[in-house]
Amino acid sequence: MPFLSETLSRVKPSPTMAMTNKAAELRAQGRDIIGLSAGEPDFDTPANIAEAGRRAIAEGRTRYTAVDGIPELKRAICAKFKRDNGLNYAPGEVSVGTGGKQVLYNALMATLNPGDEVIIPAPYWVSYPDMVLLAGGTPVTVACGIETGFRITPDQLEAAITPSTKWFLFNSPSNPTGAGYSQDELKALAQVLLRHPHVWVMTDDMYEHLTFGDFRFTTPAQVEPALKERTLTVNGVSKAYAMTGWRIGYAAGPEKLIRAMAKLQSQSTSNPSSISQWAAVEALTGPQDFIAANNAVFERRRDLVVAALNDCAGITCPVPDGAFYVYPDISGCIGKTSAGGAAITDDEAFATALLEEEGVAVVFGAAFGLSPNFRVSYATSDAALSEACARIRRFCEGLR
């Protein structure tokens, strides 16, 4: 009798964490390593939000709460959806979990049966296919390359739908590409989905407030109200509010789905941290002006990185609409040999050689389902980004 579950064999460890851990090992050996692999804002949690957490402790709000969120936070989430997206939800249509990842996982676990398919545009966040596999479903990935701006087209979506399709799961703006879907693009996708009423929509809006320039964020239930009754809109406070460690994600959708997710959560983690929930209430209801200030910093960093990478031999780097990632194409580097003698056979070999020879940690594109690319997180200082890009340029110049 095997000791480990067969379910575990369906998934692999996170490549993002693997690269972060490898960089940490080299750093511990005394190497000068610049880490561009972690998707985490480098800003501190705003003072008013942190104070709300401290106040919750001081006031004794440290006990168990309702399984899927305190009423005050659910009301704040409803107000957020109304304010930011023009969507009306009742508290019974809201779920709060320990980070956006748990909310996504709960929804998939609560709905997928063997044979059910989930359409996922690639590049995708590394966890999507593995969560589908853990839930017993089948991920159906659709390659969306640089030629479509890393976005799925209506024709691609139509072609991917089968009678077994349960969900269409996507992320805008995207991790890893930063590509966002415009209102018109979402309308076109919605027209496809309206023709297939058995397909539900799961939209990961975690980077909603991290957008740049003329791009304007919209979400499917906002663009096409007829989809609202089969859409789960997922969000959280991790990125825009610099609260990654507080671990609060949330979603709104039909009450029957929310109840099923709560049932599952009641037998797994139960409630998210009570302290974090009260901090999230302050995040959603308190001052929002710091978001624009932080975005100005991210946009400046984006422009710095895009310009520097496009100046590297063999690299093409599109300009992202939001988030804090770029996803350059390295087709011009494949098949060459590095200055240190490494054969650059694919993007994983590129990322490995770049880390070992130049001390820059990035995540290879195959981890996100589309190659040959790599992901850079520019959620770090301008000085670190400038130095990292200079090292990447030197690495590319050494390819023969």
UniProtKB/TrEMBL annotation:
One GO MF term attached to the UniProt entry: pyridoxal phosphate binding
Enzyme Commission designation: 2.6.1.-
Pfam families recorded: Aminotran_1_2
SUPFAM superfamilies attached to this UniProt entry: PLP-dependent transferases (SSF53383)
Biological process per Gene Ontology, one example term: amino acid metabolic process
InterPro entries xrefs: Aminotransferase_I/II_large (IPR004839), AspAT/PAT-like (IPR050596), NHTrfase_class1_PyrdxlP-BS (IPR004838), PyrdxlP-dep_Trfase (IPR015424), PyrdxlP-dep_Trfase_major (IPR015421), PyrdxlP-dep_Trfase_small (IPR015422)
Catalytic activity: L-aspartate + 2-oxoglutarate = oxaloacetate + L-glutamate
KW Endoplasmic reticulum (keyword) present: no
Keywords assigned: Aminotransferase, Pyridoxal phosphate, Transferase
PROSITE patterns: AA_TRANSFER_CLASS_1
Oligomer and partners: Homodimer.
Protein name, entry field: Aminotransferase
Species name: Limimaricola hongkongensis DSM 17492
